[in-house]
Amino acid sequence: MSQRPVADGPARWLDVELPSVAENLALDEALLAEAHDGLFDGLVVRTWMAGQPTVVLGSSSHVSQEVDLAACDAEGVTLVRRPSGGLTVVVGPGCLMWTVVARWPEPTPAIDGVHAAVLDPLAAALRAVGRQVVRRGSSDLAIDSAGALRKVSGNALRMRRQAVLYHGTLLDDFDLGLVTRVLRHPPREPDYRAGRDHGSFLANLELGRGPLEAAVRTAFAATHERRTWPQHHVADLVAERYRETTWTHRLP
């Protein structure tokens, strides 16, 4: 990972996939707390995939602006809220989720620098396996499809004074029509979207989970293995926040 905004240290691959979206988001936040508290240096890298379609709100997303609740009820799609910024996404089978948690020394790097340091190597790794991926907007990855750039990855971050959580989606074999059915047009969009609806804007990578995971691992040189994870902190976060309706719907 060239020019990464972190302290020197190994990149560790954490092969943990928890049963629910709530638990996986809580694990990302718990790893961020560990990094901030200096419990590891370098990076922790992981991937996971939701077993059921789920709407994931950004930390500052307003439900009524971004989500069609009636459609979610009709589709049996549940809602959760993540700890990072950005707009609402839909996840589920066929959408690989990826996470990088990094510790760095002060001073805190600029946000644009974090986006570049994390997304540029991932785009390069995906190009190496045959998909001409480019970085667009502030935190998207896109491919050229029939002469138009279509988004294949949307990403978000949460920064603390000495650590960053960076996580997002890699659309691979996902039901893109579901996004159109349950999400409204976003309240803001990157220039390259040019007003397109979800169906005209999104695309799948069609690589398969194995090659995608390998690309993520290669991008961040995650050659070491991490065997442990903060189970008690995850359980506390799930109970206190991620499964609480008051947290999910705190911005109606």
Write a concise synopsis of the structure shown.
With 252 residues, the protein is an alpha/beta fold.
What does this protein structure show overall?
With 252 residues, this protein is α/β, with parallel strands linked by helices. The chain has a single domain (11-247), classed as 2-Layer Sandwich (BirA Bifunctional Protein, domain 2), CATH 3.30.930.10. The protein contains nine helices and eleven strands. It has helices at residues 21-36, 63-66, 69-75, 111-128, 176-182, 198-201, 209-219, 231-242, 245-248, and strands at residues 11-14, 43-48, 54-57, 78-81, 89-91, 95-103, 133-136, 140-145, 148-160, 163-171, 224-226. The strands form two sheets. Strands 7-8-9-10-6-2-1-11 form an eight-stranded mixed β-sheet, sandwiched between helices. α1 (21-36) links the parallel β1 and β2. α1 packs across α8 and α4 packs across α7. It is globular and about 40 Å long.
